[in-house]
Design brief:
The strands form three sheets. This protein has a six-stranded mixed β-sheet with strand order 9-8-7-6-10-11, sandwiched between helices. The chain has a five-stranded mixed β-sheet with strand order 3-2-1-4-5, sandwiched between helices. It has a two-stranded antiparallel sheet with strand order 12-13. The longest helix has 29 residues, at 240-268. A hairpin with a 4-residue loop joins strand 1 and strand 2 (15-21). It is built from 13 helices and 13 strands. It has helices at residues 35-41, 46-68, 87-104, 113-119, 121-124, 164-173, 179-184, 187-195, 220-234, 240-268, 291-303, 313-316, 320-332; strands at 4-10, 15-21, 26-32, 77-83, 108-112, 132-137, 142-149, 152-161, 218-219, 280-284, 307-309, 361-363, 375-377. The chain folds into two domains: 4-120 and 319-332, 2-Layer Sandwich (Nucleotidyltransferase, domain 5), CATH 3.30.420; 132-312 and 352-377, Nucleotidyltransferase, domain 5 (2-Layer Sandwich), CATH 3.30.420.40. It comes from Dracunculus medinensis (Guinea worm). One of its GO terms (cellular component) is mitochondrion.
Length: 381
């Protein structure tokens, strides 16, 4: 049966609405983010974003319904981001979704922002089946998970602090570059553009020690602080393009190392029987738009015999379509709230700690720049 949905996503800075059918057809969509204001104030201000959402959300919903020729009561559900994100911004979307659900007497579906990033891959790649491994890297979050269903995620690794996107943004803001870049591009895009023009092996001039932690989780704060200290110490005696290449290499190598860690765990753990059925590794989130990082992770995926799937770049960043699609999957699996009463509280996440697992072979980080990956095997006594 063909289902139609109206979707709202209010995460940080994007006001977006989309109507999507269960066959993957985008019937109508609207999206807006004030990048100029963000550049002027030096980042995302929750109160400014919330004001933007309140100003545009009613208009966007009305326009989308008109564009697709649907009435609210024609829709089979309304999906909305409820976690994670800036609470003051999420509240605008949640309140609007509740009103729409009650007015149209249609179910409400609570969507986890990062789960939507993972499942959007199946919107354009129908061959993707559960289970699959998801690498989700964005400006606010980073995690690697085994995806068993639309609402069933086994978290393998997540971030203790910061994220790759935040790492890029903080470093880019301290670079001695023209304001044009800062006003028109994200930190990640700035670093990728400058790194693309670096000298051969220029990245190797600005390498740092990889973060060490007691558990297996990400620690991008350590990478950020190390490069900010290096930038402050060297000041003008720095080759900006090679420096950016070093930052990009470090983040890519760190992600490749962690993905390798997860794949080793999945293959060696007796608890996991589904990994043999897994054909795909999905890479999504705003940072997935970085081609250097995609290339590094594709090498890891290929080494383990999997295909790396990356959504179209416009679907890697925050968008309404991914929330609607995840809402469709959740509605099909009966993860819904009746329009009365309604509850938009957060759900518990399923965590899976792998901190006790040490891989037998260790990835040679510099090999991500080569055609083939190299590994060092741990000696056993």
């Amino acid at each position: 049966m063909l289902l139609n949905y109206v979707m709202l996503i209010i995460s940080c800075d994007d006001t977006a609405v989309s109507v999507l059918s269960s066959d993957g057809n985008v019937l109508s969509t609207r999206n807006y983010a004030n990048r100029e204001a963000q550049a002027r104030i030096g980042g995302i201000c929750p109160y400014v974003s919330a004001a933007q959402h309140r100003k545009l959300i009613d208009k966007f919903v009305d326009e989308c319904l008109v564009d697709c020729g649907k009435r609210l009561c024609d829709l089979d559900g309304v999906a909305v981001t409820t976690r994670p994100g800036l609470a003051i911004a999420l509240a605008v979307g949640a309140e609007k979704a509740v009103r729409l659900s009650r007015k149209g007497h249609i179910p409400l579906i609570k969507v986890h922002h990062m789960q939507a990033h993972a499942t959007v891959a199946s919107l354009f790649h129908a061959a993707i089946k559960y289970p699959f491994v998801a690498v989700l890297i964005s400006g606010g979050h980073s995690l690697i998970a085994l995806v068993i269903g639309a609402n069933q995620f086994k978290i393998l690794i997540e971030a203790n602090s910061s994220s790759p996107g935040e790492c890029f943004d903080k470093i880019a803001r301290q670079l001695p570059i023209n304001d044009y870049y800062l006003k028109n591009f994200s930190g990640g895009a700035i670093i990728e553009q400058l790194a693309a023009n670096s000298s051969h092996d220029g990245y190797s001039k600005y390498l740092i020690n990889m973060p060490r932690s007691k558990d297996a989780n990400f620690n991008f704060s350590s990478i950020t602080n190390s490069y900010l200290q290096l930038l402050s110490k060297m000041k003008l005696d720095i080759d900006i393009k090679d420096f950016c290449a070093g930052v990009q290499f470090t983040v890519a190598a760190y992600l490749a190392k962690k993905l390798h860690h997860c794949m080793e765990f999945l293959y060696e753990s007796d608890e996991i029987k589904t990994i043999s059925k897994t054909e795909f590794i999905v890479l999504s989130g705003g940072v997935a738009s970085n081609g250097y990082i995609r290339n590094a992770l594709e090498k890891v995926a290929t080494f383990y015999g999997h295909s790396l799937i990356v959504p179209p770049l416009h679907l890697c960043c925050d968008n309404a379509e991914m929330i609607a699609w995840n809402g469709i999957k959740l509605l099909q699996e009966k993860y819904i709230l009746d329009y009365c009463p309604l509850d938009v509280n957060y759900c518990q996440r399923n965590r899976w700690n792998i901190s006790s697992i040490t891989p037998r072979k260790h990835l040679s980080l510099k090999s991500i720049t080569s055609e083939r990956l190299l590994f060092h095997f741990r000696r056993t006594t």
